[in-house]
Design goal:
about 500 residues; alpha+beta; Immunoglobulin-like; five-stranded antiparallel β-sheet; 18 strands; about 40% helix; about 20% strand
Length: about 500
């Protein structure tokens, strides 16, 4: 006979109580209750001013100035930055890139990756706290929310209160500003791929294409949803960086830290009280560091993966220390070793410049220099050679053996050019064309048929390598492309 402890438990999944109180199973029930999810509690970040807040808003201003105004810049007779997917051309100021320039995208990704490794090894999640689009737009959306609904306490009271005319119009105004900003963001994003002046005319005339409509509203919806509603949940649950950041941290990485030796034991006290007499540390347990945190964590519990390194808790803690007359730096950017061993700022910075940082810096510098040199020495035009597979070889007039090729000439310069084509590497080789030169308009490409001939007895049967030489009529640039000449048996 089996005992009750031998029988399998019946698991009854339930949602947690709204107040997060402990859940007890019904009396006499032989069951184990588990919660399938944790109820989300809305975070109301408190506004903060200070050194790091000023830097954060400066980065917000700079990044958004670049994003919103770059598509409107003109370069000559075209948009300065335009990724024309239809024409397969990418304009970046004086550069015109083609799909064949994919190597530069690879270089850009390598630079981005090593920059992330370097900045994370030096100072943690600087990207997340200051320049990540999720952080930037969340800051902007929070500012609009404060503009419409008031500060943190006013928003909390209004959300808890029943609906009224004041609550309705304020929340409607907030939503209207959010939607307007999101749509403008989506419009600007599409303006990098469709000329923004033409896009503006299409919007004004209600003649937008299906793809433009889709991407404007898709990007707007993503901005509105992520920055307006999901906010810290994107950083905590969707962003993979929070999960693997620990692999790039070590004990000499600058992170937002709480000086436990100085702050503990914490507790409230009078401003005039002597903390030593009360056996208290510098922390007054005001919880402002939690209230200003955009992800709702308590930095006094140590580094947590939710921390984005924005420094808001350091700013507000410094303001509290100023009010009670204590030294600043209870919460600050420091390293684990520096806090534990009480290093000075000079000692901390010396240990930050450790081997891994120098290696990352060296690799990053080498890749950037290589990419810059490659762009500076880049040929002003490109050539692709394709054999005419319909006729590998034939006998031409005069008893010569002829192979037919198709050459694609891509003029990446901003001026029209005439190109001259010749061949070398074979005895008696010559190039026959309908015109002595090939005109190609600026930033355009053109296919041209080329006949290469050699005397009948100049080569034995088989494949023979040779080179095409393509240059501008003015002789300013020259490109050499290899190919194969076929002599039939």
């Amino acid at each position: 006979m089996s005992t009750p402890s031998d029988r399998p438990h019946k698991v009854i999944p339930i949602a947690p109580n709204p107040d997060r109180s402990p859940i007890e199973p019904p009396p006499g029930a032989d069951a184990e209750m588990v919660a399938l999810y944790q109820a989300h509690k809305k975070i109301y970040p408190r506004s903060v001013t200070g050194y790091f807040a000023k830097w954060r808003w400066a980065i917000v201003f700079i990044t958004q100035l670049v994003f919103y105004f770059t598509p409107w810049l003109e370069w000559g007779q075209r948009q300065a930055v335009l990724f024309d997917l239809g024409a397969r051309r990418f304009y970046i100021f004086n550069l015109v890139l083609y799909p064949q320039d994919f190597i530069y995208l690879t270089g850009l990704l390598v630079i981005s990756a090593f920059s992330l490794f370097l900045f994370t090894a030096v100072a943690g999640r600087l990207w997340c706290g200051y320049a990540c689009p999720q952080t930037v737009y969340t800051e902007i959306f929070l500012w609009l929310e404060k503009l419409a609904e008031g500060d943190r306490s006013a928003r909390m009271r209004r959300d808890a209160a029943p609906w009224s005319w004041d609550k309705l119009w304020r929340k409607s105004a907030k939503q209207a500003m959010w939607v307007a900003l999101a749509l403008w963001t989506g419009f600007t994003f599409v303006g990098y791929f469709t000329p923004i002046h033409a896009l503006s005319s299409a919007v004004a005339g209600w003649t937008l294409g299906a793809w433009e409509i889709f991407w404007i509203f898709f990007y707007a919806f993503a901005t509105y949803g992520f920055a307006g509603h999901m906010r810290e949940q994107v950083c905590k649950y969707m962003c993979p960086y929070a999960r693997f950041q620990s692999a790039m941290f070590d004990k000499d990485t600058l992170i937002v830290t709480y000086d436990r030796d100085r702050g503990e034991p914490r507790g409230p006290r009078s401003k005039k009280a002597d903390p030593a007499a009360l056996n208290l540390g510098s922390c007054v347990d005001c919880s402002l560091c939690v209230q200003v945190c955009p992800t709702g964590i308590d930095i006094r519990k140590g580094l947590q993966y939710e921390c984005i390194g924005c420094g808001a808790c350091a700013d507000v803690c410094d303001s509290v220390m100023d009010k009670v007359g204590y030294a600043r730096g209870l919460v600050k950017y420091s390293t684990e070793n520096a806090v534990n061993q009480h290093w000075t700022s000079a000692q901390t910075l010396r240990h930050v410049l450790r081997p891994r940082v120098l290696i990352y810096s060296g690799i990053l510098l080498a890749v950037m220099v290589a990419m810059g040199v490659s762009l500076a020495l880049r040929d002003p035009f490109k050539v692709d050679v394709v054999r005419d597979r319909g006729a590998l070889a034939r006998i031409a007039a005069g008893g010569k053996i002829e192979n037919v090729y198709r050459l694609q000439i891509m003029n990446v310069m901003e001026q029209d050019q005439d190109f001259v084509i010749s061949a070398s590497g074979l005895n008696g080789v010559s190039v026959e064309m309908d015109t002595p030169s090939v005109p190609v308009a600026s930033t355009e490409s053109r296919w041209v048929a080329v006949r290469v001939q050699v005397p009948y007895d100049a080569l034995p049967p088989g494949s023979h390598p040779f080179t095409f030489e393509i240059g501008t009529r003015q002789g300013a640039a020259r490109v050499v492309e290899k190919s194969i000449f076929i002599v039939p048996r």
